[in-house]
Amino acid sequence: MSYVFPPPPQASVAVRGTADRFPVRRIFCVGRNYAAHAREMGRDPDREPPFFFTKPADAVVDTPATIPYPPETDNLHYEIELVVAIGRAGTDIPEEAVMDHLWGATVGIDLTRRDLQLQAREQGRPWDWGKAFDRSAPMAPLVPIAGVPSVEQGHIWLAVDGEVKQDADLSDLIWSVREHVSILSRSMALAPGDLVMTGTPAGVGPVGPGDRITGAVDGLAEIEISIGARA
Q: Which UniProt keywords apply (predicted)?
């Protein structure tokens, strides 16, 4: 067998402290998983079932990095998130077994073309053009799960040019990591290489060329990106 053209390089994320890479299979994202962010997006924060959307594997970007301002938007937003990495396959995973399926965790930014997302939402269309564009998932190096202090609690924050914009705790998640990974696994067979971006706190907002974005889940990982000129 031969391919009709050379396959693209495997999308991957760095692993902290090593030369190893974590191969990325799929990126799942959890929508509106912090109550205050649900409110700022005009939605009810009650515990209705979590919903998911995806980004392509090759949306990942190693950080620190400069990311060109993407095309077809005038309203690019940041969303800081805890990211967990699946290392063991599973379907219909019980909540109490979720941690056994995690390879590691890190912090990432769900870059969003907010104008395109809101337009799609108003028209009842998929969010892909607002969420799943090139270089829309910058991530810090993954930390193997043995070195992760917690996926249940911890200070999560983001700043733009040194001014804190998002400031919360992982304990504020509406659906915990154990809960929403378990729910996700009922619909999709999770496999090694899958990443789950777990939702963003309140305080999202626009950035433009020249802005420097920093953030962290304290004790786990820090991230830094800059926004470059329009692509």
A: Hydrolase, Metal-binding
Is the C-alpha dihedral spanning 143, 146, 149, 150 positive or negative? positive
The CATH code of the domain that includes 59 is: 3.90.850.10
The answer to whether residue 217 sits within a structural domain is no
Give per-residue pLDDT as tens, 56-75.
Answer: 999 999 999 999 999 999 99
Q: By the 8 A CB rule, do 57 and 86 touch?
A: no
Q: For residue 111, give the 3-state DSSP assignment.
A: coil
| Residue 113 falls inside a structural domain | yes
Residue given tokens 């400069």 in the structure block: 66
Nearest to 173 by CA among 31, 27, 44, 52: 31
How many domains in the chain? 1
Q: Which residues of the chain have pLDDT under 50?
A: none
User: Is residue 209 assigned to a domain?
Assistant: no
Contact 143, 186 (CB under 8 A): no
What percent of the chain is helix, strand and coil (3-state, nearest 5)? 20, 40, 40
Q: Are 131 and 53 in contact (CB under 8 A)?
A: yes
State the residue range of the domain holding 123: 12-63+80-152+171-203
Residue 134 main-chain phi, psi, to 5 deg: -60, 140
Domain-embedded: residue 72: no
> What are the Cα distances from residue 103, in Å, to 84, 89, 117?
8, 11, 31
